[in-house]
Automatic annotation (TrEMBL):
Keywords: Signal. It comes from Triangularia verruculosa. InterPro entries: GH43_arabinanases, Glyco_hydro_beta-prop_sf. The lineage of its organism: Eukaryota, Fungi, Dikarya, Ascomycota, Pezizomycotina. CDD domains: GH43_Bt3655-like. PANTHER family: ARABINAN ENDO-1,5-ALPHA-L-ARABINOSIDASE, ARABINOSIDASE-RELATED. This is Glycoside hydrolase family 43 protein. Residues 1-23 form the signal peptide.
Length: 365
């Protein structure tokens, strides 16, 4: 008689149990055919890649280090990131103040879609100035870099977008405007009267300004985009709700009320210059004591939006999420177990598998 070893017996029992569970699962689905639910076997199908989006690339600055740092998601997990380039900056500016804050990755639009990307940011090194001086006689330019692969960044330039009456240009971002066929670039500025050329007096409230560009080299004359006088508004962030549909008119825009130190969302279903409404009324907010909203769609759940909010007096970005993003209520804090601490105002870009692997190969993990 052959003796059955204990390890072999345990393996047989485990295999029998697995197939018993599988048979029960199939039986419970009746005669509709063989249907295997991977969740029955403990496999989290929500982590599988869908479509051609395989992950996320984040660009941030780190508190006292005003440079561009890259973070790559762990697979297609929107809340799990790791530092690239061994935690060192990917971009160090050489112009202006030699510091860049609020880096935003701008995906190409129109004929540049999928072929070109830009990074734009604030020209500010706060370690070499004061907050008062940075708002009175700060930089009036926008940092720009460009890339054809999200790996090699060239063409550093500092483009002046406001005249001498502006005290600063802060937190620039950009979005492709399909109706115009150009990039709409926006930023926050306050202004001083021409009779105060040294900007020693009282300025205007901070308002959102904008201009159009096709190449991030030449810009149209700036105009006012949002003015909620006397309230100060900064850190505007747009999110197209159907980015692959050039005819979509549905957008969200998040912004910071710098006067009350809150972040809220507005909704438009009639384009970038359509009618914007603030769900819940003028006092409705998502969160207090935060800034730098950075929103991005979930690659796996098309109804979910992620929103990073910078707790600037604490540990930087914390992730929030909602399946009803066109509302100022219902946003909940996300799982932060694998989300890095101390990331500051930046952006997150969904990327495909080819780009994901190329970035990982170039910058390392």
């Amino acid at each position: 008689m052959t003796q059955v070893r204990p390890r072999t017996l345990l393996a047989f029992v485990a295999l029998f149990f697995t197939w018993s569970c599988l048979a029960a699962s199939i039986k419970s689905r009746g005669s509709a055919g063989l249907f295997l639910d991977l969740a029955d076997l403990g496999i989290d199908v929500t982590k599988r890649q869908t479509g051609n989006l395989a992950g996320y690339l984040g660009a941030f600055f780190l508190g006292a280090d005003p440079y561009v740092y890259f973070y790559l998601s762990n697979g297609n997990d929107a809340l799990s990131f790791r530092a690239l380039n061994k935690g060192q900056p990917v971009i160090r500016p050489t112009k202006g103040t030699t510091g860049v804050r609020d880096p935003t990755i701008v995906p190409g639009g129109g004929s540049e879609a999928g072929k070109k990307w830009y990074i734009i940011g604030t020209d500010l090194h706060i370690g070499r100035t004061t907050w008062d001086a940075a708002q009175r006689t700060g930089s009036r330019g926008i940092f720009v870099w460009e890339s054809t692969d999200l790996i090699n960044w060239t063409g550093e330039r500092l483009v002046t977008v406001e005249d001498a009456t502006a005290g600063m240009v802060w937190a620039p971002e950009a979005i492709w405007d399909p109706a115009k066929g150009q990039y709409l670039v926006h930023w926050a500025s306050k202004f001083y009267p021409t009779s105060d050329p040294h900007h020693t007096g009282n300025p205007s409230n901070i308002k959102m300004r904008y201009a159009y560009t096709s190449d991030f080299k030449t810009f149209s004359p700036p105009q006012t985009l949002i003015d909620k006088n006397p309230t100060n508004i900064i850190d505007l962030n747009y999110l197209p709700l159907a980015p692959n549909n050039p005819n979509s008119q549905s957008f969200l825009r998040f912004m910071k009320d710098e006067t009350r130190k809150t972040v809220f969302v507005e909704v438009s279903n009639s384009g970038l210059f359509g009618t914007w409404t603030r769900p819940g009324g003028d006092s409705a907010v998502i969160q207090s004591g935060v800034e730098g909203p950075a929103s991005y769609l979930d690659n796996l759940n098309p109804s979910k939006v992620h929103l990073l909010l910078d707790f600037y007096g604490s540990d930087g970005y914390r992730p929030f999420e909602s399946t009803n993003p066109g509302s100022n209520s219902g946003w909940v804090g996300s799982d932060r177990g694998n989300f890095p601490k101390n990331l500051r105002h930046g952006s997150v870009l969904p990327i495909n598998g080819t780009v994901y692997e190329a970035i990982r190969a170039r910058w390392g993990v």
